Amino acid sequence: xxxxxxxxxxxxxxxxxxxxxxxxxxxxxxxxxxxxxxxxxxxxxxxxxxxxxxxxxxxxxxxxxxxxxxxxxxxxxxxxxxxxxxxxxxxxxxxxxxxxxxxxxxxxxxxxxxxxxxxxxxxxxx
Length: 126
Ligand SMILES: Cc1cc2nc3c(=O)[nH]c(=O)nc-3n(C[C@H](O)[C@H](O)[C@H](O)COP(=O)(O)OP(=O)(O)OC[C@H]3O[C@@H](n4cnc5c(N)ncnc54)[C@H](O)[C@@H]3O)c2cc1C
Fold this sequence. Notes:
single chain; about 130 residues; alpha+beta; 2 domains; three-stranded antiparallel β-sheet; 5 helices; about 45% helix; binds flavin-adenine dinucleotide
């Protein structure tokens, strides 16, 4: 958050100084799983903000030497009620970037998919 504010201020032409208590980054931002994952946000301002954050990461990461792999994400459903939730999500959220896959399509997306008992998956290209 600190660096995001510093970047936004610098882009507006302000002079910025960042104070960091540690010698190098050891906070949440260096320990997280590295997922840039807007689909997890509810529709509305939080989703719009997540998309904007994704844009910023896409711009900043190559400049900072941070690897980016826009591989999309999968939610796998092995039970009928899980599949119902994915179906409802696709029908109610109205997002072009998500769609339901059958088990074979999901397996094509990733070799890590366990296909035994798999009913389908939610695919997000973001
Ligand atoms: C295990 C884990 C996995 C996660 N996975 C994801 C993920 O996949 N995708 C995702 O989007 N989010 C993920 N998150 C959440 C995300 O990492 C955090 O929400 C985000 O990094 C928080 O950023 P921050 O700048 O608020 O905090 P930090 O990154 O912790 O930065 C705060 C900084 O302030 C410094 N500081 C604190 N007090 C002072 C002080 N008094 N003076 C000077 N400096 C100070 C700290 O040293 C630190 O460097 C994950 C979090 C964790 C812990």
